[in-house]
Amino acid sequence: MAMLKITQIKSVISEKQYQRDTLRSLGLKRIGRTVLREDNSQNRGYVATVAHLVKVEEVDA
User: Which end of the chain is least crowded, N or C, by CB within 10 Å?
Assistant: First the structure.
């Protein structure tokens, strides 16, 4: 099963509230934190919403 390794690289200060909420729903709270999420359409949509704040890598788990 493919996984997404998502790392927050920028701050949420001065970002819109829905973008902050999206990062929180992904499980990201601080710059430099990394989470693994399943590669599905829902998580791809989350990543697309905050693409300027995160770095994404595909990994095989």
Answer: N
